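ugh ok so i messed up the first submission bc i forgot one of the chains. this is the corrected input, ALL of the components this time, i swear. 568 residues overall. if the numbers dont match what u have on ur side tell me asap before i send this to the collaborators (the ones from the other lab, u know who)
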Amino acid sequence: MSGLRVLVGCKRVIDYAVKIRVRPDSLGVVTDGVKHSMNPFDENAIEEAVRMKQKKIVKEIVVASCGPSQSQETIRTALAMGADRGIHVEVPAGTDADLQPLAVAKIFSKLVEKEKPDLVILGKQAIDDDANQTTQLLAGMLDWPQGTMASVVNAADGRLTITREIDGGLEDISVSLPAVISADLRLNEPRYATLPNIMKAKKKKIEKMTPENLGVDITPRLKILNVVDPPVRQAGEKVPDVSTLMEKLKEKGHL
Amino acid sequence: ASTLVLVEHDGSKVNPATLHTVTAASKLGGPVHALVAGDACQEAAAAAAKIPGIEKVFVAESDALKGQIAEAVSAVLLDVQSKNNYSHILANGTVFGKNILPRLGAKLDVAPISDIVEVKSENTFVRTIYAGNAVQTLESVDPVKLITVRGTAFEAAADEGGSAATEAVEVVVNNDKSKWLEAKLSKSDRPELASASIVISGGRGLKNGENFEMLYTLADKMGAAVGASRAAVDAGYVPSDLQVGQTGKMIAPDLYIAVGISGAIQHLAGMKDSKTIVAINKDGEAPIFQVSDYGLVDDLFKAVPEMINSIDG
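and heres the new structure output, hopefully the right one now
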C-alpha cells in the first residue's frame, strides 16, 4: 500500500503541566498569559502519520487546526514534526472556548470534501474539554469506519488493522479505507521538532479559512452555565508505621 | 423524559458499569428502556431484564454485531431511536460507550455529552473538564440528549428484582467497512479493576514489573484488584489496561492504596472519588498525601511486605 493522503487534526490547548484556574466569573478557566501547547494525543496522531510517510505508505500529510490566530503556532509545530502543509480554520479569540466537538467534526468533514484524504488521524481526546468525541462524530458524518483509541495501526491490502485499547485489554479490528482513526498515548513516542526542521517548517504553507466560508454553523449546542472548582478533598493524617495503618483500616471496616 | 440505555455486556453478563448508568437514567424521570446488541446476547438480555427500573429490553442479535463494532451498533441505535423517539439515550462512560454514542450523534446531528457526574434536570448536566480540575454545568439545547455516564458518580442499581419485557429488534446492518477480529483480554482471577471494592495501585516507585508481584500478593490477601499509574504503564511495568487516571480508568473503590505513586493530576482524576485513600511513599512531600486519608511516609519495599505479613491467611 502506498501513496495515501492523510489529514491530521491538532488542537491548541492549555499545556498539560499548567495548574488550571477557574475564572472569577465562573464561566471558564483563565487562559490569558497561560502556556499553551499541542494537545498531547494530537502529537501521537501526527507522529503516526509521519511514520507512515517514512514507510512510504503515505505521500502527503495535511495538518488542520481550528482555533484562534495562535493556533498557527500549533500547526507550525506539526509542520516541524513532518507534516507537509497546514490549514488553519480561524475562530475569533474568545469564542474558541465555545467551539464544540460537533462543530469541529463538521469543519473536518468539509475539509475532507475539499482535500479528499484516504485517512484522517485525530487524537483520541483533547485534554481541555475531555470529550473524546470528534473522531467518532466525523466518522459517522462521513459514513467512514472508525478505529478509536488506537495503540497499533498496520496498513496492508487497502485495509488497516487497528489494535484498540479497551477496558479489559486490547482488541483488533480491520477497517477499509477511507477511515478515521484516533490516537491513544501508546500508539507511538512523538518526536521533538529539531531546529533545522523548525526552520524548514517556516517555509511550509498554511492556508487560512473560516467556518463561515466552509459553510459550517458553529453555534454551540451545549450552553455552559458555569465552571467551578472541584470539591477539595481534605488531607487526612500521617501514620507512623504499618501496624498503625492496618489498625486504622480495621477500624474503618476495610479489613 | 423517555430514556434508552445502551447495555454494555459480554454476551452473557451485563457489565456492572451499566447498573450505574441505569441509576443516572432513573434520575431523568419517565420510562427507561434498554438495548442489548450483539451476535449472541440472549443471556445478557435476560440479565438486563432483571434490573429494576428497566421497563423494556430490546434485543438485537445478528452476526453483523459481532464484537459490538461501532458502525453496526450505532446503526441499530439509530433504527430503535427512529421508531421510539426517546428524549435521552445513555451509555456507559467507558471505552464501549464513548466509541459508539458520538457516532450516533453524527447521524442525529446532536452534540453528545461525555461523562456526566450529575443530572440537574432533563437538559442540565454536570461534568468535569481539565482532568477533573474544573467542574462544568451545561445545558443541552438539542431535542435528543446523547449522554455517557461516569459510573463512579452514581450508585449502582440492583441487578435482581425486575422483570422487564424483552422485544426482538430486526437487525438490518450493511457494514462491509469494518470488521471485528479478536479481543485480547487480560486474564486474571482478581476482581475487575473497575468494580473492585479494594484497589492497590503501583507507580514508578515500584522500579520494575517484577516488583509488582509484591502488590499482587498483597492484593490476593485482601481480595483487591491491582492498578497502576500512567508512569508505571509508560515504563512498561504493567499492561495499559491497569492504568488508573484521566486517560485510563476512572474508579472509586471503598479503599484505594497508592504505592510508590507521587500523585500527578491526571492520576488523581482517576481515583480521588475513592472512599478511603491510603498513600505509601518515601517522599513526604508527594502530592498524593494531599488527598490521602492515611499517609505512610516509608520505603514501600519495607512497608508492603510488612502489610502482607500482618494479614492472616
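quick check: Chain A touches chain B through 78 residues (CB under 8 Å). that seems consistent at least. Residues 4-251 of chain A form a domain with the Rossmann fold fold (CATH 3.40.50.620).
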